[in-house]
Amino acid sequence: MDTAIFHKDFKARPFWWEDYTPQALPEIALPKDISVAIVGAGYTGLSAALELARQGVEVLVLDAAEPGFGASTRNGGMVSGGVNVGKRYMSKPMTADQAAPFLNDAADAFTHIENLIARERIECGWHKRGYFLGAWCQSHFDDMAKKVALLNAEAHSDSYIVPREAQRAEIGSDYYFGGMVVGRAAHLQPALYYKALLGLALKAGVSIASHTEVTGLSQNADSSWVLTTPRGVARAGEVVIATNGYTGGVTPQLRRRVVPVGSYIIATEELPADLAASLSPRNRSFADTRRVLTYYRMSPDGKRLIFGGRAKFGHTDPVTTAPLLYQFMIDRFPQLKGTKITHSWTGNVAFTLDELPHMGKFDGLHYALGCNGSGVAMMSYLGHQTALKILGKVNRVCAYDQSEFPSHPLYTGSTWFLPLIGYWFRTRDWVDRLWN
After folding, report:
1. Crossing angle between the packed helical segments 375-391 and 43-54, to the nearest 10 degrees
2. Which of 44, 181, 243, 432 has the fewest beta carbons under 10 Å from its own?
């Protein structure tokens, strides 16, 4: 390992935690009876709890760790307005009519979080400055032209193609074969957004039990639920599973439908002002069409580069993966060679077998799961939509509320196969780049 890349004050923890570190809440007595219990206190769980509580419903949220300890304060803070959904859908044999409802609701997810931040005056480094998707090879760039019209029509994305010779206006790099700009996208400080959601939920009267893992779930004859924890039991009329990439064995029927994949992120030291400004001339966020994805953006103050990606498939030490991410970063920005890393961290992303987020009801349990790497807006939205569904206040069925949530007979939650998939993806990326 090249230890020279690490700053003398290096920390193996999220950079975002410098502003807000997840912490245990004061211990509460578990209520014997509650209207709705929510398992998981991330964006999904808190968004659902907030809407329910504001409508007068008694809500208990249970989390196995400190609220926000998972992906809600670990992600890259990039907020898409449907582009990632469109990116995946366009790679599949799906017609524009089939894709349209999902893109419509992805656009609504962006509207939801944007309105929430504005209405509640949440200070979380919100920058609505667009998104640049870099083409890994020429064929990927050629395919982008097919996506723009659909994204603009159905996700209101304000998208346009950027040829290779013009990409320096978007990104301080010649690495890509051109790309696509999506104007309706943003980035934020995810831990501060989470902190605000937590504060809103507590203010609305939501009961939150931290360090209270749900170890058992059983349904009574009257369809109510008994939740067993090391601190006692609680009875709930409805239960929402909002565990996403941390879904465990207490809900095996859902665990076998989501695949937790480790995503890794590094933060650079503060950069000289002119260098920082040159990396992202328009303060965009970035990703690329490579199967072994990278994604990155400037910090909210514009002084550091936050760089993430699938450095390893599976789960490993973020210090071990830091040199791999560093090399990915230098490949794109050779001018950053010699820059030190101050933070490196990891968190779980929940993928589904059809690459779609899902909400619905399964075996009597409500759920909202499977962010597929686009969780900031989408999981906030699906939590909110789940609450409206419980309240009976939806005037249409959300596109992601599907009757089918795919599983596979050979997958039960063990991710032993992820390194093999990573090897296959890297090989295909290499071939694409070589021959295009």
Report:
1. 30
2. 432
- Buried-state track 108-120, b at ≥16 Cβ within 10 A, e below 16: bbbebbbebbeee
Which element (helix H / strand E) includes 326? helix 318-332
- DSSP codes of every residue in 126-195: -B---EEEE-SSHHHHHHHHHHHHHHHHHS---EEEE-GGGGGGT-S---SS-EEEESS-EE--HHHHHH
**207 closest CA partner among 32, 20, 384, 17:** 32
Any residues with CB less than 8 A from the CB of 245 and at least 6 apart, and which? Answer: 70, 71, 258, 260, 261, 347, 348, 349, 350, 371
Q: What are 336's two structure tokens?
A: 């950053």
In the chain, what's the furthest Cα-to-Cα distance? 66
Task: Report the candidate in 18, 146, 13 with the shortest Cα–Cα distance to residue 87.
Answer: 146
Read off the tokens for 76.
């890259």
CA pair distance 327, 322, nearest whole angstrom: 9
Q: How many Å apart are CA 374 and CA 164, to the nearest integer?
A: 26
Token look-up 């003398």 returns 8
Q: At what angle do helices 138-154 and 96-119 cross, to 10 degrees?
A: 70
CA separation for the pair 148, 16 (Å, rounded)? 33
Q: Chain-centre distance of CA 338, in angstroms?
A: 30
DSSP state of 113: H
Q: Kindly report which listed range (169-173, 299-303, 425-429) carries the lowest average pLDDT score.
A: 425-429
pLDDT tens for residues 118-176?
999 999 999 999 999 999 999 999 999 888 988 999 888 999 999 999 999 999 999 99
Q: pLDDT by residue (tens digit) across 244-258?
A: 999 999 999 999 999
Token pair for residue 84? 């990632």
**The residue type at 324:** L
Does residue 293 sit in helix, strand or coil? coil
Distance of CA 360 to the CA centre of its chain: 19
